[in-house]
Amino acid sequence: MKRIASLLVAVAMPVLLVAYTPSTSRQGGEEASPIYGLTIPAGYRDWKLISVGRVVGHNNDLRAKLGNDVAINAYREGKIPFPDGTIIARLAWHEVTSEENNKALRDVDSFVAGSATNLEFMVKDSKKYASTGGWGFAQFTDGKPDSEALHKTCFPCHEPAKDQDFVFTRYAP
Amino acid sequence: MKRIASLLVAVAMPVLLVAYTPSTSRQGGEEASPIYGLTIPAGYRDWKLISVGRVVGHNNDLRAKLGNDVAINAYREGKIPFPDGTIIARLAWHEVTSEENNKALRDVDSFVAGSATNLEFMVKDSKKYASTGGWGFAQFTDGKPDSEALHKTCFPCHEPAKDQDFVFTRYAP
């Protein structure tokens, strides 16, 4: 048993260290979002990709949706509603033209992610957030939660996606 | 020791299972790219996000760059040249308008990832690929490698990015 235990230490520790090593620049923030009381989840920048998109209007951004393991497994298994513990992160960046890419690619126009805009999260907790479809919402700008007025708009905006458990984003193949 | 061992089994096994469970739909393909002999790396869809972008011209796509752990660590540490073992994946999808998002967001235009276009990889092996800056290249469409003629264009196109070790993509914050 001692040998098995040592083996387990040897095998398990690197995996555990990788899983739990804090990455300071990607740590969660301390301040919680109004209404929902959510902080930036630690390690979200390491989560797996759900999909990408962009919005033209206020920001002209490029965006990525990342999911924690609960979210990714639910997406891949087509599990609706999403189980408690699901967290979906929306990262976004100002879209900028890449002159460098355009020179190399010549006959196309290439756009890339510039500076970050804001950061959004949806967290599933069907009891805690029963009055908003089981979801808590949060938006952070420069690491600080945005206003209560803004957070009041989250759920009404997501309501039309009720058939997909209030989530608009589909998993990209 | 027995109790510690049991605890380790309890703690370690779920982590190990998550790390090593094969995901059939995301397995690597069998057929190798011409010139460079690269197959689709198993598990690439689970890799971490480097950045996002889009190209307007032939495809009007949305794209994501993912990196294996060697790639992500090198990016975050600003390590140039990238170490051997680095793999960068470029996923791309046809960009489609999301009428559903537009209805919810009202005064903006939202675009999302539609069906996949093709899949590209850069693999760093400074000895094996010495004549092409240490990089092997591969492009796959519907899981099959594209032509030799196409693969001859990869390195010349990447040459202008010599100062960043032939990699155009920057890490998105």
Q: Quick gist of this model?
A:
Helices cover 25% and strands 30% of the residues of chain A. Chain A has helices at residues 2-20, 69-77, 99-105, 148-151, 154-158; strands at residues 48-56, 61-67, 87-97, 109-124, 135-141, 144-145.
Note down, in words, how this protein is organized:
The structure is a homodimer of 173-residue chains. By secondary structure, chain A is α+β, with helices and mostly antiparallel strands. Helix content of chain A is 25%, strand content 30%. Chain A has helices at residues 2-20, 69-77, 99-105, 148-151, 154-158; strands at residues 48-56, 61-67, 87-97, 109-124, 135-141, 144-145. A six-stranded antiparallel beta sheet of chain A has the order 1-2-3-4-5-6. The longest helix of chain A is centred in the N-terminal third of the chain and has 19 residues, at 2-20. Chain A is globular and about 55 Å long. In chain A, 36% of the residues are buried. Mean pLDDT of chain A is 87; it is low at 1-26. Chains A and B meet through helix 1, strand 1, strand 2, strand 3 and helix 3 of A and helix 1, strand 1, strand 2, strand 3 and helix 3 of B. Strand 4 of chain A pairs antiparallel with strand 1 (48-56) of chain B, so a sheet runs across the interface.
Provide the descriptors you would attach to this structure in a database record:
homodimer, 173 residues, alpha+beta, 6-stranded antiparallel sheet, 25% helix, disordered N terminus
